[in-house]
Amino acid sequence: xxxxxxxxxxxxxxxxxxxxxxxxxxxxxxxxxxxxxxxxxxxxxxxxxxxxxxxxxxxxxxxxxxxxxxxxxxxxxxxxxxxxxxxxxxxxxxxxxxxxxxxxxxxxxxxxxxxxxxxxxxxxxxxxxxxxxxxxxxxxxxxxxxxxxxxxxxxxxxxxxxxxxxxxxxxxxxxxxxxxxxxxxxxxxxxxxxxxxxxxxxxxxxxxxxxxxxxxxxxxxxxxxxxxxxxxxxxxxxxxxxxxxxxxxxxxxxxxxxxxxxxxxxxxxxxxxx
Length: 274
Ligand SMILES: NC(=O)c1ccc[n+]([C@@H]2O[C@H](COP(=O)([O-])OP(=O)(O)OC[C@H]3O[C@@H](n4cnc5c(N)ncnc54)[C@H](OP(=O)(O)O)[C@@H]3O)[C@@H](O)[C@H]2O)c1
Fold this sequence. Notes:
Belongs to the short-chain dehydrogenases/reductases (SDR) family. This is SDR family NAD(P)-dependent oxidoreductase. It is a single chain. The protein is of the alpha/beta class. It has a single domain, classed as NAD(P)-binding Rossmann-like Domain (Rossmann fold), CATH 3.40.50.720. The protein contains 9 helices and 9 strands. Strands 3-2-1-4-6-7-9 form a 7-stranded parallel β-sheet, with helices on both faces. The chain has a two-stranded parallel sheet with strand order 5-8. Helix 5 (144-164) links the parallel strand 6 (126-131) and strand 7 (169-176). The protein is globular, with a radius of gyration of 20 Å. The N and C termini lie far apart (61 Å). The structure holds NADP nicotinamide-adenine-dinucleotide phosphate. NADP nicotinamide-adenine-dinucleotide phosphate binds at residues 7-8, 10-14, 32-34, 37, 54-57, 82-85, 105, 109, 131, 133, 176, 178-179, 181-183, 186-187, 214.
């Protein structure tokens, strides 16, 4: 039996993951900014699922959640940093209030939750699941701030994987393509100051044309995450869905092409050896 601590359980992946874990008999510390949104979900799992308030931008609240998890279940062995939202618009269009607020959730919130959890996880070992995105693999015009945040999640996760291996803690970086959650609805923020110069690269069209029609089934995504958490040999990177795989293949090919194209020029930068 595993014990999960999951952020952002009010909808989408977080909610489904909490339910799927509880339904198979695991224990769950489900958290949400507004805890009343998850109480009904937890009701059938009394004694195995507890609900706690957690806005991931509140580092003290993350510590309180960890303390309560230890008090209730003696700890946990899977941390899922799931909470997040998107900010779309060109880099020049964004304001510090917009992009700093998004980094507070998607990046610093993940860091603070992880830092709060690590003293417990280092004792038990286990798995950290960090929700990145296909947007954490490849950057495209109109999504720069969200890409930057998810690229940060990737870098933090890769570093953690190395740092935490000696403690028996694995890291899984989940990189979904478009999945039918609330993400493209209420979890997308558009920059307020849209500039006509960037109309062609605006993400607005992307949202309007895809919300409700995303090809990915979040329940199938959650089944893959459960399988990866259970597997001894799951890879660090888990691109989820065909769209994410296409992004990863495209990125690898473009990166390969770039590093090969100027190899002779760009490797000629070391001091001459005597
Ligand atoms: N669905 C996709 O296509 C997709 C693709 C790639 C990556 N992702 C990633 O998957 C993760 C989950 O998103 P989702 O698709 O499940 O969308 P979702 O249904 O909109 O869920 C987002 C969750 O994040 C929570 N959240 C936002 N800000 C928070 C904060 N400050 N503290 C705590 N919780 C907060 C929301 O809670 P509230 O109810 O309090 O707002 C909600 O529970 C995100 O990290 C997202 O970037 C999604």
